[in-house]
Design goal:
The chain has 262 residues and is mainly alpha-helical. It contains 11 helices and no strands.
Length: 262
Amino acid sequence: MKDKNRDDYFKEKHSFLGAIGGLISFSTILSIGTHTTIKSMAKVAWLWPFISASIGILGFLISYFITDFLKFPTLITAAILYGFFLYVNGFHHLDGLLDFGDGIMVHGTSDEKIAVMRDSKIGTGAIGLFFIVGIITLGILDSIISFKLFQAIIIVEMSTKFSLLSVAISSKPSLDGTGRFFIEYLTVLKYLISIILGIAISYILLSYIGIFGVIGGILGGVIVSMVCERNFKIATGDVLGASNEIGRLFSGLFILIASILN
């Protein structure tokens, strides 16, 4: 009986770690080499912000090195940092932002908007939304680096997933697509635990200013959720991806506002 319980424990632990590894491989260019299912990944999606925080740490190191040792202008550093985040995330979320932009620009029913969002074409809505989100995000990162708030880079990237989780917890899933599993398997308890841990990490990194970064990420997700409800009625993987990019913007913006008012 003891051997059976021990085997079950190691099997469950291996499954848990495999799901985290799968989530990393699924959402980034990093291949962990684990075999798991979308459902298993969705069950541990509440840990997603902390995977993004590790990417934020790399961004922090890159920005600090380029700015303080290579003496690059902050705008160039911000552009490299933004490109790094988009690339490491495999452009998955950027693809969602582009599709989201096309979908919300369509005049028609929810089904028609979803159909446009899911097609392979890129229209002016996609280009326009990416330009708005991209240029503002670039300016925010430039300001964060100029103010020497390097810890904020970690918080901002972590908060992209608080935005995504906020959409997942407040939206109805589609009937198909992989995005629905991340909505169906996210519980309020897991969501709150993730937020509380994120707030604690942010406070350690940047005092109460860091907390504003988490709040901004959540607000970004709430806004995307409201736009989603109005236009599509349901949330797809593209909507979740868009919330990641918009969450980065709002998180950085709130940190800047808090630092200026401090």
